[in-house]
Write a structure and sequence with these properties.
The strands form 3 sheets. Strands 1, 2, 3, 4, 5, 6 and 7 form a 7-stranded mixed beta sheet that branches. The chain is built from 12 helices and 11 strands. The longest helix has 21 residues. GO terms for molecular function: triacylglycerol lipase activity. One of its GO terms (biological process) is triglyceride catabolic process. This is Patatin like phospholipase domain containing 1. InterPro entries: Acyl_Trfase/lysoPLipase, PLPL, PNPLA_dom.
């Protein structure tokens, strides 16, 4: 979304959560950051879009679901998937059934009333492969069915797609990876993949080309290829926790970059590291002059390292694809200097 759009006073805006797979923990970190630093942004969003796993986060934002419950569920699901060689493809892994159970437990009874008109879920219709955006729900069960349809990845989640109002749908990410209803609409886009988006990782060199796939923007880079692998086959809990922390960090930096809402999101007592489980960073009264507000120095544009550089934690990877990609990533650094320079 253009910076001048969100700076315009009184301009209605929406939030859009992309499909993400097990990288949904990045979006949990984004929402956690917004709840703590800019809760009025979440409350004032007129529409909240969600696709695939991102629809679960969109529903949590609209219905006020406890984020700790969702975070615990996603960590538990990833841990369960890593117990077998096939991961989530194992017959023992009932991912969709587990999602249904957690939705029934965490969504309030009036969730369909709260969600109608504000929550927009991206679905892909099986009959013709067209994208369908649903936003009206007559019951809690109907809302849950819509969310299950948006999360259903064929073969990965089973072979028989679930239905919504008598029509079968599959993963909304196939036709609307980053769902929006209008190009003229002011939307804050959130994705765990680097691209031309508002809140996303920015650890890839800018020279890499961005391309449109499934109506979403993704940058061609080794980091993003690793993320795609992680989205389908979850990495270790340490890496997932870093993904959550990066979502929190990237959102804080988004608020710093965009002096959009006339609100002082940070003060001299703000300690970003406390959210990420790190309490050893000193307090600072440093100032970012370009923003004209007090911000800790360690919040000046600084990002977590890329997925391929995360503190040698990649020993926990099990899927072969990630290991190959990581070797390709570090190969140039091991080559002699005259070879790297060409």
């Amino acid at each position: 979304m253009a910076e001048e759009d969100i700076r315009a006073s009184g301009t209605p805006f929406s939030l859009s959560f992309s499909g993400s797979g097990f990288l949904v923990l990045y979006q949990v970190g984004v929402v956690q950051s917004l709840l703590e630093l800019a809760p009025e942004l979440l409350r004032s969003a007129c529409k909240v879009y969600g696709s695939s796993a991102g629809s679960l986060i969109a529903a949590a934002v609209v219905c006020g679901t406890n984020l700790d419950d969702l975070k615990e569920f996603f960590f538990a699901s990833a841990k369960e998937a890593r117990k077998t060689i096939l991961g989530p493809l194992s017959p023992r892994c009932s991912l969709l059934a587990n999602i249904k159970a957690v939705l029934q437990r965490t969504l309030p009874e009036n969730s369909h009333q709260v969600a109608s008109g504000r929550l927009h879920i991206s679905l892909t219709r099986v009959v013709d492969g067209q994208n369908v955006m649903v936003s009206e729900f007559s019951s809690k069960e109907e809302l849950i069915q819509a969310l299950l349809c948006s999360c259903f990845l064929p073969i990965y989640c089973g072979f028989i797609p679930p239905s919504y109002r008598g029509v079968r749908y599959v993963d909304g990410g196939f036709t609307g990876l980053q769902p929006v209803s209008s190009l003229e609409e002011a939307v804050i886009t959130v994705s765990p993949f680097t691209g031309e988006l508002d809140i996303c990782p920015r650890d890839c060199p800018a020279i890499f080309f961005c391309f449109q796939i499934f109506n979403g923007s993704i940058q061609i880079s080794i980091e993003n290829l690793c993320r795609i692998s992680y989205a389908l086959f979850p990495p270790s809990s340490m890496v997932l926790n870093d993904i959550f922390s990066q979502g929190y960090q990237d959102t804080a930096l988004f608020l710093c970059r965009n002096d959009a809402f006339g609100t002082n999101y940070f003060d001299g007592n703000f300690r970003f590291a406390s959210m990420c489980g790190k309490t050893d960073l000193p307090r600072s009264n440093g100032t970012l002059n370009s923003l004209g507000r007090r911000v800790p120095r360690y919040l000046a544009p600084r990002f977590l390292p890329g997925l391929a550089r995360w503190r040698k934690q990649q020993f926990g990877l099990r899927d072969p694809l990630s290991k190959v990609l990581l070797q390709l990533y570090v190969l140039p650094a091991r080559m002699p200097a005259f070879v790297r320079k060409g």
